[in-house]
């Protein structure tokens, strides 16, 4: 431990020499992406025009066009140093998958050429049996297919001395069932586009395309890699299962937006350079609230591309951290007693010309289009709060939701005072008069007047309106944003259709009818609106009176996914069939059980192999000290105090040993059932409670045992030495 500290301190005294990067980002941005700009320069003009028409108008890709694109893609990637290509897809593991194939194709003994055909570009055949299917596929049914997603650009990844062409693809089974997270997302984007254009057409606007846009803010921790590999819990369970809180955490509030350490800023610069090469619009970087916690945030993009890019962000963080002798921790709660990490998912709607449909404008009370889409969102969250909550239900997020750094499990909407007054007045049949813009004056002539926003921000709200978008703050830092985005698109598409149908039924003057529809929807959905502190017990009680769902744990929250209501909603909009919805439920429950089992077994192993041996060694040292001291001083009062310390250590060790055995017994009892939902409930209630008990004993022992003898890096080392 101390050798490791000396190594880090030495590194701080002699920082690594780095070359100052002076190249402007614009000079290399997107150079590792097979973008439209690259396609235009590499493809024959007729092929390029046809490709754009296929993407924009939904025509089918023919083999001749695919062959031309494949050739250009191969030549471009080989120029970048690529030797292999892969279909890069998103199975239901929460991460990405890839199988690399060489461009080299033998043509004779000792001879080969580089080949890549349109068929290889359009379709791949990975093994589908080893990916989660939730009962859709039997283990022996191995065949699956990947299909090129034309709407997300291919890119090259540089990993070590290898360069690989990655082609974003969808993934389905041999019999056509959806086995990935990209396909439902693309379908939800299509549904939202159709519903939105329907509503706009009623308002007299013919729009070619409506785009769901996302901007995920990614939070993460960084610790020294040597500490990471000395913590079995971090390596296997991605969070610390034991560890006493240090005397200093985040209570001084000096970490947030503070100066970024040299070692961390060097890491961030390398992350951003790789992301910029890949065309990922990383915009913001800063220290987060907890020590050693940070955030990277992009500019808004189309939903499908934003999801792909967020996967690239997460992988780039992990890979680049290793190169800097760091470990990037994306778990929602890697450390107890300090803030966990989320991924605030900013969501909005734009048309094909870039106009934001959720922009209130200067007179939001008169902006019928804005108010109709706003009302549809409010209704969607009210009607489907339980379904949206289920999209962020997994073991890691259970440690974060409801704590003071994250929104509660109760889904409510924050609109801000101005919009809340507007919708409340509409419900009463009153049109709000607009007020003049307000300015903030510092009272110092050398400082400018600041234009005040229409609304403050509410960090306790899980779903907050923030000017021209909604921020879904309950998403976990480690999860793919694809599933939450898919469900968000789906439920809002359904509500937009509800609003459009209400307008069509009423007929007459659209503006007058619109306010009537808005009034009716607000009256039915206003229970979900809440502008105050979402952390209080009073709000939880008030939410119960309002009838809002409050699903605090993963097993409880996931149940709605298997309900008839959810299955019919997904099927109605052709996002997933009913059996595919049930398969998701099965996969998510099974994953929860497996993650909890891994945590339980990891904790058991650490207690037996690390904690108890360290406690016994220190206990023996104290016993010998008491014995030798007692020979000299006899049974004095100070010896009695030392014996009490020894007794305390002995009791903690005994309690740890007993509780560890009980933990394994509970784990075995959980699996005595064949009902997976029941197993998940048992893990959530009984096994987790025993793990908390064990942690308490271990953390108490950590505070007593000699620092030199404690076998694991402590919180103060991991969080403050980097």
Task: Provide a short characterization of the protein structure.
With 722 residues, this protein is of the alpha+beta class. Helices cover 48% and strands 13% of the residues.
Based on the model shown, name its key terms.
722 residues; alpha+beta; Ubiquitin-like (UB roll); Creatine Kinase, Chain A, domain 2; Four Helix Bundle (Hemerythrin (Met), subunit A); six-stranded mixed sheet; globular
CATH class of the largest domain equals: Alpha Beta
- Overall, the morphology is globular
What class do helices, strands and sheet pairing give?
alpha+beta
Strand count, sense and closure of the main sheet?
9 strands, mixed
Strand content: 5-15%
The tally of helices reads 23
- What name does the CATH topology of the largest domain carry? Creatine Kinase, Chain A, domain 2
Assigned CATH architecture of the largest domain: 2-Layer Sandwich
**What do we call the CATH homologous superfamily of the largest domain?**
Glutamine synthetase/guanido kinase, catalytic domain
Helix proportion: 40-55%
Question: Strand tally, please?
Answer: 19
**Separation of termini?**
14 Å
Q: Low-confidence segments, ≥5 residues, pLDDT <50?
A: 13-18
Mean pLDDT: 90
Whole-number count of domains = 3
Rg is 28 Å
């Amino acid at each position: 431990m101390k050798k490791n500290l000396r190594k880090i301190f030495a590194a701080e005294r002699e920082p690594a020499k780095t070359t100052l990067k002076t190249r402007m980002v614009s000079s290399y941005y997107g150079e590792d992406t097979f973008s439209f700009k690259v396609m235009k320069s590499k493809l024959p003009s007729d092929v390029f025009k046809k490709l754009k028409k296929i993407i924009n108008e939904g025509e089918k890709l023919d083999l001749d066009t695919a062959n031309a694109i494949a050739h250009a893609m191969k030549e471009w990637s080989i120029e970048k140093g690529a030797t292999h290509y892969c279909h890069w897809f998103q199975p239901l593991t929460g991460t990405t998958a890839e199988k690399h194939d060489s461009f080299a194709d033998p043509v004779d003994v000792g001879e080969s050429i580089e080949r890549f055909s349109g068929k290889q570009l359009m379709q791949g055949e990975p093994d589908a049996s080893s990916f989660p299917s939730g009962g859709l596929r039997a283990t022996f049914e191995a065949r699956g297919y990947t299909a090129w997603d034309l709407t997300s650009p291919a890119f090259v990844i540089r990993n070590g001395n290898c360069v690989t062409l990655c082609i974003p693809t969808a993934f389905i089974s041999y019999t056509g069932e959806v086995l990935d997270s990209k396909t439902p997302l693309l379908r939800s984007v299509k549904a939202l586009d159709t519903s939105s254009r329907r509503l706009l057409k009623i308002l007299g606007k013919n729009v070619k395309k409506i785009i769901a846009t996302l901007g995920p803010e990614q939070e993460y921790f960084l610790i020294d890699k040597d500490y990471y590999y000395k913590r079995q819990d971090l390596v296997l369970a991605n969070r610390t299962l034991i560890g006493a809180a240090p005397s200093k955490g985040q209570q001084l509030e000096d970490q947030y937006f503070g100066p970024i350490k040299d070692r961390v800023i060097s890491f961030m610069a390398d992350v951003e350079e790789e992301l910029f090469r890949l065309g990922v619009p990383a915009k913001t970087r800063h220290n987060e609230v907890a020590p050693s916690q940070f955030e990277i945030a992009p500019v808004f993009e189309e939903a499908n591309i934003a999801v792909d890019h967020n996967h690239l962000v997460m992988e780039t963080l992990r890979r680049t951290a290793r190169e800097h002798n760091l470990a990037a921790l994306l778990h929602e709660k890697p450390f107890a007693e300090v803030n966990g990490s989320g991924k605030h998912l900013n969501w909005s709607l734009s048309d094909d010309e870039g106009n934001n449909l959720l922009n209130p404008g200067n007179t939001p009370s008169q902006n019928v289009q804005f108010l109709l889409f706003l009302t549809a969102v409010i209704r969607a969250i009210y009607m489907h709060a339980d379904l949206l909550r289920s999209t962020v239900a997994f073991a890691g997020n259970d440690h974060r939701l409801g704590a003071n750094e994250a929104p509660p499990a109760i889904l409510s909407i924050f609109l801000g005072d101005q919009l809340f007054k507007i919708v409340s007045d509409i419900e009463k049949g009153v049109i709000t008069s607009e007020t003049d813009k307000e300015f903030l004056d510092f009272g110092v002539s050398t400082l400018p007047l600041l234009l005040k926003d229409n609304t403050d921000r509410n960090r306790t709200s899980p779903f907050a309106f923030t000017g021209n978008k909604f921020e879904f703050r309950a998403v976990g830092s480690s999860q793919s944003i694809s599933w939450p985005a898919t469900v968000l698109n789906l439920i809002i598409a359904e509500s937009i259709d509800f609003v459009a149908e209400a307008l069509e039924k009423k007929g007459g003057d659209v503006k007058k009818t619109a306010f009537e529809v808005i009034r009716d929807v607000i009256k039915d959905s206003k229970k979900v609106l809440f502008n105050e502190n979402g952390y209080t017990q009073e709000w939880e009680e008030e939410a119960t009176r309002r009838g809002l769902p409050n699903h605090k744990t993963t097993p409880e929250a996931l149940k709605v996914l298997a309900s008839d209501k959810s299955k019919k909603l997904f099927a109605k909009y052709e996002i997933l069939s009913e059996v595919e919805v049930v398969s998701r439920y099965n996969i998510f429950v099974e994953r929860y059980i497996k993650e909890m089992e891994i945590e339980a077994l990891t904790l058991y192993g650490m207690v037996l192999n690390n904690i108890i041996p360290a406690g016994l060694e220190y206990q023996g040292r104290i016993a010998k000290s008491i014995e030798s001291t007692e020979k000299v001083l006899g049974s004095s009062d100070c010896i009695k105090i030392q014996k009490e310390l020894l007794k305390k250590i002995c009791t903690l060790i005994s309690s740890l040993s007993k509780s560890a055995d009980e933990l394994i017994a509970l784990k075995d009892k959980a699996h005595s059932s064949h009902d997976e939902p029941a197993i998940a409930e048992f893990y959530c209630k009984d096994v987790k409670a025993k793990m908390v008990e064990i942690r308490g004993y271990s953390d108490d022992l950590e505070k007593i045992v000699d620092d030199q003898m404690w076998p694991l890096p402590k919180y103060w080392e991991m969080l403050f030495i980097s």
